[in-house]
Design goal:
By secondary structure, this protein is α+β, with helices and mostly antiparallel strands. The chain has one domain: Sandwich (Immunoglobulin-like), CATH 2.60.40. Helices cover about 20% and strands about 45% of the residues. It has 1 helix and 9 strands. The strands form 2 sheets. Strands 2, 3, 5, 6 and 7 form a 5-stranded antiparallel sheet that branches. A hairpin with a 4-residue loop joins strand 8 and strand 9. The chain is globular. About 15% of the residues are buried.
Length: about 120
């Protein structure tokens, strides 16, 4: 019985370490989108790789600034952001090098990505 309890404690400890490495703060990508009328409707924002699946970051209100984030695992590399509106408007950001843990700001009107 004691061996079983000891094995469970070890297994839970390893699972906790693995979980922290995969889903911790360091893996979060945070994107602040400034929409001052470039797309005059709600905006859906996606993270797009040249090859591989895209990640839906979320939806923002019509005008103003909003922050989206993802903890979904992604690899360091070259990405673009895509914004789509209800008016069939689509806008792509310039290519940006991203890594887990990055924080960026995308101004839709000027189509510029900055780092705070």
């Amino acid at each position: 019985m004691m061996r079983m309890i000891a094995a469970m404690v070890v297994a839970l400890g390893l699972a906790g370490c693995f979980g922290n490495r995969m889903g911790g703060e360091g893996n979060t990508l945070t994107v602040t989108v400034q929409n001052d009328g470039a797309i005059p409707s709600q905006v859906r924002v996606y993270l797009v790789q040249s090859a591989g699946p895209e990640i839906n970051l979320g939806t923002l209100p019509t005008l103003g600034t909003g922050t989206l984030s993802t903890t979904r695992e992604f690899l360091s590399g070259q990405y673009r952001l895509r914004a789509e509106g209800g008016t069939n408007a689509v806008q792509f950001s310039p290519v940006v090098a991203l890594a887990p843990g990055d924080v960026i700001i995308w101004n839709l009107q000027r189509n510029v990505i900055q780092r705070p």
